[in-house]
Design goal:
With 429 residues, the chain is an alpha/beta fold. It folds into 3 domains: 192 residues, Rossmann fold (3-Layer(aba) Sandwich), CATH 3.40.50.150; 75 residues, 2-Layer Sandwich (Phosphorylase Kinase, domain 1); 140 residues, Aminoglycoside 3'-phosphotransferase, Chain: A, domain 2. The protein contains 14 helices and 16 strands. Strands 3-2-1-4-5-7-6 form a 7-stranded mixed sheet, sandwiched between helices. Strands 8-9-10-12-11 form a 5-stranded antiparallel sheet, with helices on one face. A two-stranded antiparallel sheet has the order 13-16. α4 links the parallel β2 and β3. α2 packs parallel to α3 and α11 packs across α13.
Length: 429
């Protein structure tokens, strides 16, 4: 009777324009419930009870608590649940979910209500999730419009889609949860509490230390980059996003797969493409060979379009921290410099080069990567090399310019800005 009645509920829902879970989504969640031995479900958005009934029918041990704000739908959901004989295992609450306080813990929280409120639902009910549980969010593709806004001319729909995109970014950059995204049905996300990496912060796992971060080895494939406690979330996120860009452009060996916070410090988990970690040891290189490969790599980076990244002017102004009066001179000079959409690594120097077993070079450290004219990044590299010039240097600043076939005169406006940034800028790099 339940199967037949479910078809009836589904048919009436479509007829009355009541949104219900797609079949592909149902199959995904049924499989998830079975695989992870889910016994308790909290659903945000009951509608007419179609999904709650399906969850309960997966296994006789499954209990569902579901919240619905609309009174008419709640009444219909109660009738449907009673007709299926599931009143003892499905609890229906008629209330605004954001005003509803629930004390129980659940193995699965399913969000399928007002899309504009997804982030608020997530933040409110994450406290109700069991440590090994999951939060599943539905309709993240919103009928394909999220990926292609040309599918609608409605201003309100486009506004809603922007909120869904913000929610997706919220999930991607969440420091408490790791999220996987699926194109199943109308787009699904599965969020789980992040792995506790604090056990890897030890002398045994320590690899290297830089000015503002430390590197720890997690396993044969993964590294943890842990920033100092004085590094802001904005800077750490900038590194995360820039590293994603670099990996997607095949200029980095490390895929950023997690953004987190440990003991007050932000961190990024990277996964290595190869079995062995690339090295920073450059002294095995012949200087001429290295300088050739170094130059070729920089030219490759500078050929990339980085329109999606922040501009170098925005970056430098951010570093200044808004001290407009104190830095009025350098700000005026900065604003006169040209714009550009080329990828600027921001700190391209031998210290930030990795070498694999085949002596291929890869860039690393994308914290201050941005878009700008090629001259900006060439000037940055020249400036850094000039600061470290010595007889032992693997690459001298003058040799670098010769290899890049660029005149120093064209870089002087940028170098002048770098010199004025000395105190607030150079240390960060």
């Amino acid at each position: 009777m339940s199967a037949e009645f479910l078809l009836e509920i589904k048919s009436l829902a479509h007829k009355n324009n009541v949104p219900i879970m797609q079949d592909a989504t149902s199959e995904f969640i049924f499989s998830f419930i079975k695989k992870h031995n889910v016994k308790s479900v909290l659903e945000i958005g009951t509608a007419v009870g179609y999904s709650a009934i399906q969850f309960a029918l997966v296994d006789e041990s499954v209990k569902v608590t579901t919240i619905e704000i609309d009174i008419d739908r709640t009444i219909q959901a109660i009738k449907n649940v009673e007709k299926c004989g599931l009143k003892s295992r499905i609890k229906i609450i008629n209330n605004d979910a954001l005003a509803c306080d629930i004390n129980e813990k659940f193995d699965l929280i399913f969000i399928d209500a007002a899309k504009a409120q997804y982030e608020k639902f997530f933040e409110k009910f994450k406290a109700n999730l069991n440590p090994k549980g999951a939060i599943i969010s539905d309709n993240l593709l919103f009928h394909g419009i999220v990926e292609n806004q040309n599918l609608t001319n409605s201003y309100s729909t486009k506004k809603l889609v922007r909120k869904i995109k913000r929610y997706v970014n919220f999930l991607k950059e969440n420091i408490e949860f790791t999220t996987e995204f699926y194109k199943t049905g109308d787009g699904i996300s599965v969020s789980k509490f992040k792995t506790d990496y604090s056990n890897f912060i030890s002398e045994e796992n320590f690899l290297e230390e830089k000015e503002y971060f430390k590197i720890f080895k997690i396993d044969q494939k993964c590294l943890l980059k842990l920033f100092d406690e004085n590094v802001s979330k904005e800077f750490a996120l900038m590194d995360f996003r820039n590293s994603q860009f670099a990996y997607n452009q095949n200029i980095s060996k490390f895929m950023p797969c997690d953004f987190l916070k440990i003991s007050g410090c932000f961190g990024i988990v990277f996964q290595n493409d190869d079995e062995k970690f690339p090295s920073r040891i450059l002294n095995e290189f012949d200087k001429n060979i290295f300088s050739d490969k170094f130059t070729l790599l920089h030219e490759k980076l500078l050929s990339l379009n980085a329109e999606s990244l922040a501009s170098y002017k925005e970056l430098l102004l951010f570093i200044l921290g808004g001290n407009s009066k104190e830095n009025s001179s350098v700000i005026r000079k900065l604003k006169k410099l040209p714009e550009g959409n080329f990828f600027c690594q921001g700190n391209f120097c031998p210290e930030n080069i990795l070498i694999d077993e085949n002596k291929n070079l890869f860039a690393s450290n994308f914290l201050l990567s941005c878009k700008g004219p090629k001259e900006f990044d060439i000037a940055r590299t020249f400036y850094i090399l000039s600061k470290t010039n010595s007889e032992k240097s693997i690459l001298k600043s003058e040799d670098y310019l010769i290899k890049m076939e660029i005149d120093k005169e064209s870089l002087l406006p940028f170098i002048e800005v770098f010199n004025e940034f000395e105190n607030s800028f150079y240390d960060i790099f």
